Amino acid sequence: WKPKSYPPGPKWLPIIGNYRDFKRRLDKLGYHHLVWDELAKIYGPVVCLKMGRSLVVTVTGPEAVREVLTRDEFDGRPDGFFFRVRTFGKRLGIVFSDGQFWQKQRKFSLQHLKDFGFGKREMELRIVEESKELIDDLKKKSVGSLYMHKAFDVSVLNVLWTMMAGERFSLDDVRLIKLLQIIHDAFRLFDMSGGLLNQMPLLRFIAPGVCGYTKVMKILTEMWLFLEETIAEHRKTVGATHPRDLIDAFLQKMKVCSSEDSFTDEQLLSLCLDLFMAGSETTSNTLGFAMLYMLKYPNVQKKVQDEIDDVVGRNRWPTMQDKINMPYTEAVLMEIQRIANVPPLGIAHRATCTTKLFEYSVPKGAIVLTSLYSIHMDNAFWKDPFEFRPERFLTDKGTVFSPDWYFLPFGHGKRRCLGESLAKTNYFIFFTAVLHNFILRIDTDVDELNMNGFDGITISPKPFKVILLPRTD
Ligand code: HEM
Protein backbone atom coordinates (compact mmCIF):
# COMPACT_ATOMS: atom_id res chain seq x y z
CA TRP A 1 0.00 0.00 0.00
CA LYS A 2 1.05 3.59 -0.60
CA PRO A 3 -0.75 6.93 -1.06
CA LYS A 4 -1.84 7.39 -4.69
CA SER A 5 -0.46 10.92 -4.82
CA TYR A 6 3.12 9.70 -4.12
CA PRO A 7 5.53 9.21 -7.04
CA PRO A 8 5.28 5.80 -8.73
CA GLY A 9 7.31 2.75 -7.78
CA PRO A 10 6.96 -0.93 -6.93
CA LYS A 11 4.41 -2.03 -4.29
CA TRP A 12 5.48 -1.87 -0.63
CA LEU A 13 5.59 -4.86 1.69
CA PRO A 14 4.82 -4.43 5.39
CA ILE A 15 7.83 -3.37 7.54
CA ILE A 16 10.56 -3.90 4.92
CA GLY A 17 8.80 -1.92 2.16
CA ASN A 18 10.77 -2.38 -1.08
CA TYR A 19 13.96 -3.55 0.59
CA ARG A 20 13.86 -7.09 -0.87
CA ASP A 21 13.11 -5.92 -4.40
CA PHE A 22 15.86 -3.32 -4.24
CA LYS A 23 18.36 -5.85 -2.91
CA ARG A 24 17.48 -8.32 -5.66
CA ARG A 25 18.11 -5.67 -8.31
CA LEU A 26 21.31 -4.56 -6.57
CA ASP A 27 22.67 -8.12 -6.57
CA LYS A 28 21.99 -8.26 -10.31
CA LEU A 29 23.32 -4.82 -11.29
CA GLY A 30 26.06 -4.31 -8.69
CA TYR A 31 25.60 -0.54 -8.24
CA HIS A 32 22.95 1.48 -6.42
CA HIS A 33 22.73 4.13 -9.14
CA LEU A 34 22.08 1.43 -11.77
CA VAL A 35 19.18 0.12 -9.73
CA TRP A 36 17.64 3.61 -9.70
CA ASP A 37 18.31 3.90 -13.41
CA GLU A 38 16.50 0.63 -14.05
CA LEU A 39 13.56 1.74 -11.89
CA ALA A 40 13.38 5.07 -13.75
CA LYS A 41 13.09 3.16 -17.03
CA ILE A 42 10.04 1.38 -15.62
CA TYR A 43 8.37 4.13 -13.57
CA GLY A 44 9.63 7.43 -15.00
CA PRO A 45 11.91 10.27 -13.80
CA VAL A 46 10.52 10.38 -10.25
CA VAL A 47 10.46 7.06 -8.38
CA CYS A 48 9.44 6.45 -4.80
CA LEU A 49 10.51 3.47 -2.68
CA LYS A 50 9.93 2.62 0.94
CA MET A 51 13.13 1.25 2.48
CA GLY A 52 12.32 0.12 5.99
CA ARG A 53 11.37 3.33 7.79
CA SER A 54 12.72 5.65 5.09
CA LEU A 55 10.80 6.97 2.13
CA VAL A 56 13.27 7.46 -0.71
CA VAL A 57 12.41 9.49 -3.81
CA THR A 58 14.97 9.41 -6.59
CA VAL A 59 14.97 11.83 -9.51
CA THR A 60 16.48 10.89 -12.85
CA GLY A 61 17.25 13.03 -15.91
CA PRO A 62 18.06 16.74 -16.28
CA GLU A 63 14.54 18.11 -15.84
CA ALA A 64 13.80 16.35 -12.55
CA VAL A 65 17.33 16.87 -11.18
CA ARG A 66 17.12 20.58 -11.98
CA GLU A 67 13.73 20.82 -10.27
CA VAL A 68 15.15 19.39 -7.02
CA LEU A 69 18.45 21.28 -7.03
CA THR A 70 16.85 24.68 -7.61
CA ARG A 71 14.05 24.52 -5.04
CA ASP A 72 14.60 25.53 -1.41
CA GLU A 73 12.17 22.94 -0.07
CA PHE A 74 14.59 20.22 -1.22
CA ASP A 75 17.63 21.81 0.40
CA GLY A 76 17.29 19.78 3.59
CA ARG A 77 19.47 16.79 4.45
CA PRO A 78 18.09 13.47 5.70
CA ASP A 79 17.70 12.83 9.37
CA GLY A 80 17.86 9.38 10.97
CA PHE A 81 20.13 7.03 12.84
CA PHE A 82 22.82 6.67 10.18
CA PHE A 83 23.05 10.43 9.62
CA ARG A 84 23.29 11.20 13.36
CA VAL A 85 25.54 8.39 14.55
CA ARG A 86 28.64 10.27 13.27
CA THR A 87 27.74 13.34 15.25
CA PHE A 88 26.85 12.19 18.78
CA GLY A 89 23.18 11.49 18.02
CA LYS A 90 22.64 15.13 17.00
CA ARG A 91 22.36 16.93 13.68
CA LEU A 92 25.78 18.52 13.46
CA GLY A 93 28.54 19.17 10.91
CA ILE A 94 27.86 20.70 7.48
CA VAL A 95 27.11 17.82 5.15
CA PHE A 96 24.10 16.39 7.03
CA SER A 97 22.76 19.44 8.85
CA ASP A 98 20.28 21.94 7.45
CA GLY A 99 18.28 25.11 8.14
CA GLN A 100 19.85 28.09 9.89
CA PHE A 101 22.39 25.91 11.69
CA TRP A 102 23.80 24.69 8.37
CA GLN A 103 23.73 28.17 6.78
CA LYS A 104 25.72 29.64 9.65
CA GLN A 105 28.25 26.80 9.73
CA ARG A 106 28.73 26.69 5.95
CA LYS A 107 29.25 30.45 5.83
CA PHE A 108 31.70 30.34 8.74
CA SER A 109 33.74 27.49 7.24
CA LEU A 110 33.97 29.04 3.79
CA GLN A 111 34.83 32.47 5.13
CA HIS A 112 37.60 31.17 7.38
CA LEU A 113 38.96 28.63 4.92
CA LYS A 114 39.37 31.63 2.59
CA ASP A 115 41.37 33.41 5.31
CA PHE A 116 43.82 30.51 5.07
CA GLY A 117 44.08 30.60 1.31
CA PHE A 118 41.08 28.59 0.09
CA GLY A 119 40.29 29.50 -3.52
CA LYS A 120 43.30 31.82 -3.73
CA ARG A 121 46.77 31.81 -5.25
CA GLU A 122 48.24 30.65 -1.92
CA MET A 123 46.19 27.47 -2.18
CA GLU A 124 47.44 26.83 -5.69
CA LEU A 125 51.06 27.32 -4.60
CA ARG A 126 50.51 24.80 -1.82
CA ILE A 127 49.07 22.32 -4.29
CA VAL A 128 52.06 22.82 -6.58
CA GLU A 129 54.39 22.12 -3.62
CA GLU A 130 52.42 18.98 -2.72
CA SER A 131 52.48 17.80 -6.33
CA LYS A 132 56.26 18.29 -6.51
CA GLU A 133 56.68 16.21 -3.38
CA LEU A 134 54.43 13.50 -4.80
CA ILE A 135 56.29 13.39 -8.11
CA ASP A 136 59.64 13.04 -6.27
CA ASP A 137 58.15 10.22 -4.22
CA LEU A 138 56.79 8.49 -7.33
CA LYS A 139 60.19 8.81 -9.01
CA LYS A 140 61.78 7.00 -6.05
CA LYS A 141 59.13 4.27 -6.02
CA SER A 142 58.69 3.81 -9.74
CA VAL A 143 61.23 1.08 -10.28
CA GLY A 144 58.98 -1.58 -11.82
CA SER A 145 55.26 -1.10 -11.48
CA LEU A 146 53.31 0.44 -8.60
CA TYR A 147 49.73 0.68 -7.42
CA MET A 148 48.25 4.00 -8.49
CA HIS A 149 44.57 3.89 -7.44
CA LYS A 150 45.33 5.54 -4.11
CA ALA A 151 48.50 7.42 -5.01
CA PHE A 152 46.97 10.86 -4.38
CA ASP A 153 45.28 10.21 -1.02
CA VAL A 154 47.72 11.88 1.37
CA SER A 155 48.81 14.71 -0.95
CA VAL A 156 45.23 15.79 -1.64
CA LEU A 157 44.29 15.71 2.02
CA ASN A 158 47.43 17.66 2.96
CA VAL A 159 46.23 20.74 1.09
CA LEU A 160 42.93 20.83 2.96
CA TRP A 161 44.46 19.82 6.28
CA THR A 162 46.96 22.68 6.16
CA MET A 163 44.06 25.15 6.01
CA MET A 164 42.07 23.30 8.65
CA ALA A 165 44.73 22.24 11.13
CA GLY A 166 47.90 24.02 10.03
CA GLU A 167 49.87 20.83 9.42
CA ARG A 168 50.65 18.37 6.69
CA PHE A 169 51.55 14.69 6.77
CA SER A 170 54.51 12.87 5.33
CA LEU A 171 53.48 10.78 2.32
CA ASP A 172 54.41 7.65 4.30
CA ASP A 173 52.54 8.58 7.50
CA VAL A 174 51.33 5.17 8.63
CA ARG A 175 48.53 6.45 10.87
CA LEU A 176 47.10 8.75 8.21
CA ILE A 177 47.27 6.07 5.52
CA LYS A 178 45.38 3.75 7.86
CA LEU A 179 42.82 6.46 8.55
CA LEU A 180 42.29 7.13 4.85
CA GLN A 181 41.85 3.40 4.29
CA ILE A 182 39.21 3.41 7.04
CA ILE A 183 37.37 6.29 5.35
CA HIS A 184 37.61 4.46 2.06
CA ASP A 185 36.04 1.36 3.65
CA ALA A 186 33.30 3.50 5.21
CA PHE A 187 32.39 4.92 1.80
CA ARG A 188 32.05 1.37 0.44
CA LEU A 189 29.93 0.17 3.35
CA PHE A 190 26.97 2.48 2.85
CA ASP A 191 24.91 4.07 0.15
CA MET A 192 23.45 7.54 -0.09
CA SER A 193 20.14 6.62 1.49
CA GLY A 194 21.92 5.52 4.68
CA GLY A 195 21.61 1.77 4.05
CA LEU A 196 20.14 -0.84 6.38
CA LEU A 197 21.31 0.95 9.50
CA ASN A 198 19.12 3.93 8.70
CA GLN A 199 16.20 1.93 7.41
CA MET A 200 16.05 -0.45 10.37
CA PRO A 201 18.13 1.08 13.20
CA LEU A 202 16.97 -1.54 15.69
CA LEU A 203 19.08 -4.03 13.77
CA ARG A 204 22.09 -2.62 15.58
CA PHE A 205 20.96 -4.50 18.67
CA ILE A 206 19.94 -7.70 16.88
CA ALA A 207 22.58 -8.04 14.16
CA PRO A 208 25.22 -5.31 14.62
CA GLY A 209 27.64 -7.03 12.24
CA VAL A 210 25.16 -7.57 9.41
CA CYS A 211 23.76 -4.02 9.34
CA GLY A 212 27.24 -2.47 9.46
CA TYR A 213 26.93 -1.01 12.97
CA THR A 214 30.04 -2.71 14.37
CA LYS A 215 32.18 -1.48 11.48
CA VAL A 216 30.76 2.03 11.48
CA MET A 217 31.46 2.43 15.19
CA LYS A 218 35.02 1.19 14.74
CA ILE A 219 35.57 3.67 11.92
CA LEU A 220 34.02 6.56 13.83
CA THR A 221 35.95 5.81 17.02
CA GLU A 222 39.25 5.96 15.15
CA MET A 223 38.25 9.16 13.35
CA TRP A 224 37.01 10.88 16.54
CA LEU A 225 40.20 9.94 18.37
CA PHE A 226 42.42 11.31 15.63
CA LEU A 227 40.49 14.58 15.30
CA GLU A 228 40.13 15.02 19.05
CA GLU A 229 43.92 14.80 19.45
CA THR A 230 44.42 17.52 16.84
CA ILE A 231 41.77 19.75 18.40
CA ALA A 232 43.18 19.21 21.93
CA GLU A 233 46.60 20.31 20.68
CA HIS A 234 45.04 23.47 19.26
CA ARG A 235 43.17 24.16 22.49
CA LYS A 236 46.49 24.21 24.35
CA THR A 237 48.17 26.66 21.99
CA VAL A 238 45.46 28.88 20.48
CA GLY A 239 45.88 32.64 21.05
CA ALA A 240 43.17 35.28 21.49
CA THR A 241 43.74 36.72 18.01
CA HIS A 242 45.54 35.74 14.77
CA PRO A 243 44.10 32.26 14.18
CA ARG A 244 46.56 29.89 12.52
CA ASP A 245 43.91 27.75 10.82
CA LEU A 246 40.18 26.89 10.73
CA ILE A 247 40.30 25.02 14.06
CA ASP A 248 41.82 28.06 15.78
CA ALA A 249 39.20 30.33 14.20
CA PHE A 250 36.45 28.04 15.49
CA LEU A 251 37.92 27.87 19.01
CA GLN A 252 38.14 31.67 19.11
CA LYS A 253 34.55 31.98 17.92
CA MET A 254 33.45 29.57 20.68
CA LYS A 255 34.93 31.89 23.31
CA VAL A 256 32.79 34.84 22.18
CA CYS A 257 29.58 32.88 21.59
CA SER A 258 26.91 31.93 24.09
CA SER A 259 26.56 28.25 25.00
CA GLU A 260 23.28 28.04 23.01
CA ASP A 261 25.03 29.00 19.82
CA SER A 262 26.01 26.41 17.24
CA PHE A 263 29.75 26.82 17.94
CA THR A 264 30.37 23.93 20.33
CA ASP A 265 33.07 21.30 20.93
CA GLU A 266 30.88 18.64 19.33
CA GLN A 267 30.23 20.82 16.28
CA LEU A 268 33.95 21.49 15.83
CA LEU A 269 34.68 17.78 15.78
CA SER A 270 31.75 17.12 13.43
CA LEU A 271 32.82 19.89 11.07
CA CYS A 272 36.37 18.50 10.93
CA LEU A 273 34.99 15.01 10.31
CA ASP A 274 32.78 16.25 7.46
CA LEU A 275 35.47 18.25 5.71
CA PHE A 276 38.05 15.49 6.16
CA MET A 277 35.72 12.87 4.67
CA ALA A 278 34.15 15.01 1.91
CA GLY A 279 37.51 16.42 0.88
CA SER A 280 39.65 13.30 0.65
CA GLU A 281 37.74 10.44 -0.94
CA THR A 282 36.10 12.39 -3.81
CA THR A 283 39.22 14.04 -5.20
CA SER A 284 41.54 11.06 -4.87
CA ASN A 285 39.00 8.73 -6.50
CA THR A 286 38.63 11.19 -9.39
CA LEU A 287 42.40 11.35 -9.84
CA GLY A 288 42.60 7.56 -9.56
CA PHE A 289 40.09 7.21 -12.40
CA ALA A 290 41.99 9.84 -14.38
CA MET A 291 45.11 7.63 -14.25
CA LEU A 292 43.06 4.61 -15.25
CA TYR A 293 41.61 6.37 -18.31
CA MET A 294 45.05 7.56 -19.37
CA LEU A 295 46.25 3.96 -19.27
CA LYS A 296 43.28 2.73 -21.25
CA TYR A 297 43.58 5.52 -23.86
CA PRO A 298 47.31 6.13 -24.50
CA ASN A 299 46.51 8.30 -27.55
CA VAL A 300 44.57 10.71 -25.29
CA GLN A 301 47.45 10.62 -22.81
CA LYS A 302 49.85 11.59 -25.58
CA LYS A 303 47.65 14.47 -26.75
CA VAL A 304 47.48 15.85 -23.21
CA GLN A 305 51.27 15.57 -22.90
CA ASP A 306 51.73 17.36 -26.22
CA GLU A 307 49.43 20.17 -25.08
CA ILE A 308 51.27 20.49 -21.75
CA ASP A 309 54.59 20.65 -23.59
CA ASP A 310 53.27 23.30 -26.01
CA VAL A 311 51.81 25.54 -23.34
CA VAL A 312 54.04 24.92 -20.32
CA GLY A 313 57.25 23.74 -21.97
CA ARG A 314 59.65 21.38 -20.21
CA ASN A 315 61.24 23.82 -17.77
CA ARG A 316 58.49 24.80 -15.40
CA TRP A 317 55.51 23.33 -13.54
CA PRO A 318 51.91 23.60 -14.88
CA THR A 319 49.81 26.28 -13.14
CA MET A 320 46.14 27.26 -13.15
CA GLN A 321 46.93 30.16 -15.48
CA ASP A 322 47.86 27.58 -18.12
CA LYS A 323 44.43 25.96 -17.95
CA ILE A 324 42.77 28.53 -20.21
CA ASN A 325 45.29 27.69 -22.95
CA MET A 326 44.81 23.94 -22.54
CA PRO A 327 41.27 23.21 -23.77
CA TYR A 328 42.02 19.62 -24.71
CA THR A 329 43.33 18.80 -21.23
CA GLU A 330 40.32 20.49 -19.66
CA ALA A 331 37.99 18.51 -21.91
CA VAL A 332 39.76 15.30 -20.85
CA LEU A 333 39.34 16.18 -17.17
CA MET A 334 35.64 16.90 -17.71
CA GLU A 335 35.10 13.71 -19.68
CA ILE A 336 36.69 11.67 -16.89
CA GLN A 337 34.33 13.23 -14.34
CA ARG A 338 31.35 12.67 -16.62
CA ILE A 339 32.02 9.02 -17.32
CA ALA A 340 33.47 7.96 -13.95
CA ASN A 341 30.60 9.45 -11.92
CA VAL A 342 32.46 9.42 -8.61
CA PRO A 343 29.43 10.70 -6.63
CA PRO A 344 26.72 9.04 -8.78
CA LEU A 345 23.82 10.17 -6.60
CA GLY A 346 25.39 13.35 -5.21
CA ILE A 347 24.62 13.72 -1.50
CA ALA A 348 21.12 12.90 -0.29
CA HIS A 349 18.66 15.79 0.07
CA ARG A 350 15.46 15.90 2.15
CA ALA A 351 12.08 17.50 1.59
CA THR A 352 11.72 20.07 4.37
CA CYS A 353 7.92 20.30 3.86
CA THR A 354 5.29 18.33 2.00
CA THR A 355 5.51 19.59 -1.54
CA LYS A 356 4.68 18.86 -5.16
CA LEU A 357 7.28 17.46 -7.55
CA PHE A 358 5.70 17.56 -11.02
CA GLU A 359 2.31 15.95 -10.50
CA TYR A 360 3.37 13.99 -7.40
CA SER A 361 3.24 14.73 -3.73
CA VAL A 362 6.51 14.34 -1.81
CA PRO A 363 5.93 14.17 1.95
CA LYS A 364 7.96 16.16 4.46
CA GLY A 365 11.04 14.21 5.55
CA ALA A 366 11.38 12.08 2.38
CA ILE A 367 14.99 11.39 1.37
CA VAL A 368 15.53 12.78 -2.14
CA LEU A 369 18.36 11.42 -4.27
CA THR A 370 19.51 13.20 -7.42
CA SER A 371 20.96 10.87 -10.04
CA LEU A 372 23.92 12.85 -11.36
CA TYR A 373 24.81 9.62 -13.15
CA SER A 374 21.62 9.84 -15.22
CA ILE A 375 22.40 13.30 -16.57
CA HIS A 376 26.03 12.46 -17.30
CA MET A 377 24.92 9.37 -19.20
CA ASP A 378 21.82 10.83 -20.86
CA ASN A 379 21.51 9.03 -24.18
CA ALA A 380 19.54 11.70 -26.02
CA PHE A 381 21.98 14.47 -25.16
CA TRP A 382 25.35 12.72 -25.22
CA LYS A 383 24.47 10.24 -28.04
CA ASP A 384 27.26 7.81 -27.11
CA PRO A 385 27.53 8.27 -23.31
CA PHE A 386 29.49 5.05 -22.71
CA GLU A 387 32.26 6.11 -25.12
CA PHE A 388 35.23 7.95 -23.63
CA ARG A 389 35.41 10.92 -26.01
CA PRO A 390 36.90 14.16 -24.59
CA GLU A 391 36.12 15.99 -27.86
CA ARG A 392 32.46 16.09 -26.83
CA PHE A 393 33.45 18.95 -24.49
CA LEU A 394 35.04 20.98 -27.30
CA THR A 395 33.31 23.34 -29.74
CA ASP A 396 34.18 23.46 -33.45
CA LYS A 397 36.51 26.33 -32.61
CA GLY A 398 38.35 24.15 -30.10
CA THR A 399 37.10 26.00 -27.01
CA VAL A 400 35.65 24.22 -23.97
CA PHE A 401 31.92 23.76 -23.91
CA SER A 402 30.08 23.12 -20.63
CA PRO A 403 26.47 22.00 -21.00
CA ASP A 404 24.86 23.34 -17.84
CA TRP A 405 22.27 20.74 -16.90
CA TYR A 406 24.07 17.73 -18.37
CA PHE A 407 27.32 18.12 -16.46
CA LEU A 408 27.05 18.62 -12.71
CA PRO A 409 29.89 16.74 -10.98
CA PHE A 410 29.74 19.17 -8.04
CA GLY A 411 25.95 19.42 -7.87
CA HIS A 412 24.12 22.73 -8.16
CA GLY A 413 22.29 25.27 -6.01
CA LYS A 414 22.70 26.12 -2.34
CA ARG A 415 23.96 22.64 -1.49
CA ARG A 416 26.56 22.69 -4.23
CA CYS A 417 29.96 21.29 -3.24
CA LEU A 418 31.70 23.57 -0.76
CA GLY A 419 35.13 22.39 -1.86
CA GLU A 420 34.72 22.87 -5.61
CA SER A 421 37.53 25.39 -6.13
CA LEU A 422 39.96 23.27 -4.10
CA ALA A 423 38.87 20.09 -5.88
CA LYS A 424 39.27 21.63 -9.36
CA THR A 425 42.71 23.05 -8.60
CA ASN A 426 43.89 19.76 -7.09
CA TYR A 427 42.50 17.85 -10.05
CA PHE A 428 44.19 20.03 -12.68
CA ILE A 429 47.58 20.44 -10.98
CA PHE A 430 48.07 16.81 -9.86
CA PHE A 431 46.89 15.43 -13.21
CA THR A 432 49.09 17.67 -15.34
CA ALA A 433 52.05 17.24 -12.97
CA VAL A 434 51.95 13.44 -13.37
CA LEU A 435 51.56 13.57 -17.16
CA HIS A 436 54.23 16.25 -17.45
CA ASN A 437 56.69 14.00 -15.65
CA PHE A 438 55.74 10.46 -16.65
CA ILE A 439 54.43 8.30 -19.43
CA LEU A 440 51.91 5.89 -17.92
CA ARG A 441 52.05 2.30 -19.14
CA ILE A 442 50.26 -0.81 -17.98
CA ASP A 443 52.05 -4.09 -17.40
CA THR A 444 49.01 -6.19 -18.28
CA ASP A 445 46.75 -6.37 -21.30
CA VAL A 446 44.66 -3.19 -21.89
CA ASP A 447 41.52 -5.34 -21.95
CA GLU A 448 42.24 -6.42 -18.40
CA LEU A 449 41.87 -2.88 -17.07
CA ASN A 450 38.70 -2.72 -15.04
CA MET A 451 37.03 0.63 -15.59
CA ASN A 452 34.15 -0.19 -13.21
CA GLY A 453 34.89 0.91 -9.70
CA PHE A 454 33.67 -0.29 -6.31
CA ASP A 455 30.13 0.75 -5.40
CA GLY A 456 29.40 2.95 -2.37
CA ILE A 457 28.67 6.55 -1.43
CA THR A 458 31.34 7.38 -3.99
CA ILE A 459 32.59 5.08 -6.74
CA SER A 460 36.27 4.25 -6.27
CA PRO A 461 38.67 2.71 -8.79
CA LYS A 462 39.62 -0.92 -8.21
CA PRO A 463 43.35 -1.52 -7.57
CA PHE A 464 45.51 -1.20 -10.68
CA LYS A 465 49.24 -1.12 -11.34
CA VAL A 466 51.14 1.34 -13.49
CA ILE A 467 54.61 1.49 -14.95
CA LEU A 468 55.81 5.10 -14.76
CA LEU A 469 58.39 5.95 -17.41
CA PRO A 470 60.13 9.27 -16.73
CA ARG A 471 59.65 11.73 -19.61
CA THR A 472 62.95 13.12 -20.75
CA ASP A 473 63.40 16.87 -21.28
C1 HEM B 1 36.41 15.92 -7.29
C2 HEM B 1 36.10 16.20 -6.04
C3 HEM B 1 34.74 16.48 -5.51
C4 HEM B 1 33.51 16.17 -6.04
C5 HEM B 1 33.22 15.44 -7.34
C6 HEM B 1 32.52 16.66 -5.11
C7 HEM B 1 31.15 16.56 -5.31
C8 HEM B 1 30.20 17.01 -4.42
C9 HEM B 1 28.77 16.86 -4.59
C10 HEM B 1 28.09 16.24 -5.80
C11 HEM B 1 28.18 17.38 -3.49
C12 HEM B 1 26.69 17.36 -3.17
C13 HEM B 1 25.88 18.44 -3.80
C14 HEM B 1 24.43 18.30 -3.39
O1 HEM B 1 24.13 18.07 -2.23
O2 HEM B 1 23.56 18.38 -4.25
C15 HEM B 1 29.23 17.84 -2.60
C16 HEM B 1 29.01 18.43 -1.37
C17 HEM B 1 30.02 18.80 -0.52
N1 HEM B 1 31.37 18.79 -0.75
FE1 HEM B 1 32.25 18.13 -2.43
N2 HEM B 1 33.16 17.23 -4.04
C18 HEM B 1 34.51 17.16 -4.25
C19 HEM B 1 35.50 17.65 -3.42
C20 HEM B 1 35.30 18.27 -2.22
C21 HEM B 1 36.34 18.82 -1.38
C22 HEM B 1 37.83 18.86 -1.72
C23 HEM B 1 35.75 19.28 -0.25
C24 HEM B 1 36.47 19.90 0.92
C25 HEM B 1 36.38 21.06 1.35
C26 HEM B 1 34.32 19.05 -0.38
C27 HEM B 1 33.37 19.38 0.55
C28 HEM B 1 32.01 19.24 0.37
C29 HEM B 1 31.03 19.58 1.39
C30 HEM B 1 31.33 20.10 2.79
C31 HEM B 1 29.77 19.31 0.83
C32 HEM B 1 28.42 19.51 1.49
C33 HEM B 1 27.92 20.89 1.19
C34 HEM B 1 26.61 21.21 1.87
O3 HEM B 1 25.88 20.29 2.21
O4 HEM B 1 26.33 22.40 2.05
N3 HEM B 1 34.09 18.43 -1.59
N4 HEM B 1 30.44 17.62 -3.20
TrEMBL record:
InterPro entries: Cyt_P450, Cyt_P450_CS, Cyt_P450_E_grp-I, Cyt_P450_sf, Cytochrome_P450_fam2. Heme binds at residue 417. Its cofactor is heme. One of its GO terms (molecular function) is oxidoreductase activity, acting on paired donors, with incorporation or reduction of molecular oxygen, reduced flavin or flavoprotein as one donor, and incorporation of one atom of oxygen. PROSITE patterns: CYTOCHROME_P450. GO terms for biological process: organic acid metabolic process; xenobiotic metabolic process. Keywords: Heme, Iron, Metal-binding, Monooxygenase, Oxidoreductase, Signal. GO terms for cellular component: cytoplasm. Pfam families: p450. Belongs to the cytochrome P450 family. This is Cytochrome P450. It comes from Aquatica leii.
